[in-house]
C-alpha cells in the first residue's frame, strides 16, 4: 500500500473511525490498563494496585469502555464473595503491538518534542510583556478573548465590549 493510500485510510470517512478509536486508546488510562492486562487475567483490586494514580471510578469507567469496545473481557465467578476478573480479548491483544510501537516512538522523539516546545514557548514570550505587544487578538486555552478584538462564529468582529466593532474603511 502506498503512502498516499495509507493517508487516505486516515482521512477516509472524514476521519471519524480513526478519531473514535484514538479517543478511546489515547485517553489517560486505556493503554495503561491494556498493558497491565497483557498476558494476564486480573481482578479489579490487582489492576487498581498496579496502575499508579488511577482512581476506582476511572478504572471502572475505563474497563467498561474497553469491555463495550470488545477489547477487554469480564468474567464473573459465582462465588461468595463474587470474584470478577478482567483479561484482554483477542482483539484487545492486537492492540499491544501498535501501542508498543507508539510508546517507542514517543520515548525516542520526546527529547526533540520537548526542545521544540521550549523554542516555541520562548519565541512566543520574546518581546511581549503580556503577550499582546502587537495589538492583535489572542485566542487562549481559557476560552477567553484577549486583546483588541476577536472573531466569533457569527462572522462579525467584536471589540472588548462584546458588541460588533464599527466597520473600518
Automatic annotation (TrEMBL):
Domain HTH hxlR-type, first and last residues per copy: 8-114
Disordered as annotated region, ranges: 113-169
Compositional bias per record (Low complexity), positions renumbered to this chain: 125-136
Alphabetical keyword list: DNA-binding, Transcription, Transcription regulation
Comp. bias intervals (Basic and acidic residues): 113-122, 137-155
InterPro entries: HTH_HxlR (IPR002577), WH-like_DNA-bd_sf (IPR036388), WH_DNA-bd_sf (IPR036390)
Keyword DNA-binding: yes
Coiled-coil stretches: none
Keyword presence, DNA-binding: yes
Pfam family, one: HxlR
Entry protein name: Winged helix-turn-helix transcriptional regulator
Originating species: Streptomyces flavalbus
